[in-house]
Amino acid sequence: MQFTRRTLARAAVAAAAFAALAAPAFAQGYPDKVVKIVVAFTPGGPTDVVARMVAQKLSVKWGQQVIVENKPGAAGVIGSEYVAKAPADGYTLLMATAGNLTVNQHLYKHLKFDPVKDFTPIAQTAGVDFVLVTQANSPFKNVKDVIAAAKAKPDAVTSATSGNGGAPHLAAALFEDAAKVDLSLVPYKGTADAVNAVLAGETQLDFDAASQVVPQIKGGKLKPLAVLGIKRSALLPDVPTMAEAGLPAYKFSNWFGLVGPAHMPKQVTDKLQKDVAEVLKDSEILARYQILGLQAPTAVTPAAFAKLIQADADKWAATIQAAHIVAE
Where is the signal peptide, in residue numbers (predicted)? Predict the structure, then answer.
């Protein structure tokens, strides 16, 4: 059978028309099988906690199973790459952090994906307060004590991190730059392990998410020295910000958000955004956010979330270069 140019042109038009009709039909039936939310970190950390809250509420709303799968490693690179290369059909998603999408490209020079271009932004899911903590019986009473000790003996004061390039590592590295000190940063396999290291006395400090350390603070096992954001935490109203503690130029915060592979159908993206925004208003989730020190998201549409991702990627590029932060 011979194909003329006219025949091929007609076939192309027909294919395009079919695709245009099929996309809404596909979205209308979404989801009709298990949806997987990947967390690029170990279980029990704040990203994992938020992912499981959202997954549970979406499962109820859809009457369809939504599972969370942990794929930790390389400060979130392994899990992020897995989702970036997954089919763009809305059934494999990533509960990302600011580190996944705006930091790693400036720390790892040989990524096999582009954290900005290779994902479809859906919605920010939470803002995250960070706190500098030490053991309850630590001699450090405030941030000035930490700085004095670190300056007296460079590399002697130890700080746990969730892994090279993770948020606690970045927060500690920014502290080193702002205070002009050298800490000994000790990487662990995840946030939970880093917190446990401080509790056990293996390390002296941890710059970590409030959701991970507030229960230990309330239980009298950890001592908070400073909140890392620009304002005090409602959960720790008596704890000063880092600026109030003596480092006016220091500020650090994190966020979580849901993304999928690039080029997801718009109808699927829109449905996900609408349903995620709805479950995030659930009274149970709002109550747990308050307990965990998580903030309600501000970039709840794909466009707003994409703008936040790009702005933070630009900010971290300049910050990492100025502070000479490296992942190794």
Answer: 1-27
- Structure tokens that stand for 106 in this block: 């400036």
Please give the model's pTM, rounded to 2 decimal places.
0.80
The two structure tokens encoding residue 71: 């794929």
The candidate with the shortest Cα–Cα distance to 159, out of 192, 203, 212, 189, is: 203
pLDDT at 160 over 90: yes
**CATH architecture classification, 31-127+255-323:** 3-Layer(aba) Sandwich (3.40)
The H or E element that residue 95 is part of is: strand 92-97
**Region 130-227: CATH code:** 3.40.190.10
CA 150 to centroid of chain Cα atoms: 29
pLDDT in tens, 224-282: 999 999 899 988 999 999 999 999 989 898 999 999 999 999 999 999 999 999 999 99
d(CA 312, CA 327): 18
Nearest Cα neighbor of 260 from 36, 19, 103, 28 is 36
Q: Do the beta carbons of residue 187 and residue 170 sit within 8 Å?
A: no
Q: What's the sign of the alpha-carbon dihedral 157, 160, 166, 172?
A: negative
